[in-house]
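step=encode ok
step=design start
structure_in=
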């Protein structure tokens, strides 16, 4: 911890800041909070003024899950397209086309 960070943290604590139970998401250091502003005593990072660290982490996790779902749906779409090309039974073709249409609609909604 640099002397400058140590001094800033001490000043914040003297002015009523509190220690946070959650560690810094970047370095797992101790954080203090004053007037809605969190400061990591170890690395000095502060969260975006509009987002907390937990919101940012949650958005990243949601984005990764969202991407995984899209990949899975697109893979299934590819499988059904291949299956449709070789299917001779018209009733099965209709079922496959209905499934393809549903997948396309879902993918479109997720990508927006």
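sequence_out=
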């Amino acid at each position: 911890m640099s002397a400058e960070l140590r001094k800033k943290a001490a000043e914040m604590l003297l002015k009523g800041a509190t220690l946070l139970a959650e560690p810094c998401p970047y370095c797992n250091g101790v954080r203090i909070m004053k007037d809605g502003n969190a400061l990591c005593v170890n690395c000095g990072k502060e969260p975006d003024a509009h987002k907390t660290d937990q919101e940012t982490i949650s958005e990243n996790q949601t984005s990764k899950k969202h991407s995984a779902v899209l990949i899975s749906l697109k893979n299934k779409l590819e499988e059904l397209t291949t299956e449709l090309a070789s299917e001779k039974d018209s009733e099965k073709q209709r079922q496959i086309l209905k499934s393809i249409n549903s997948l396309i609609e879902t993918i479109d909604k997720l990508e927006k």
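step=design ok
step=annotate ok -> The helical segments are 3-14, 53-86, 90-111.
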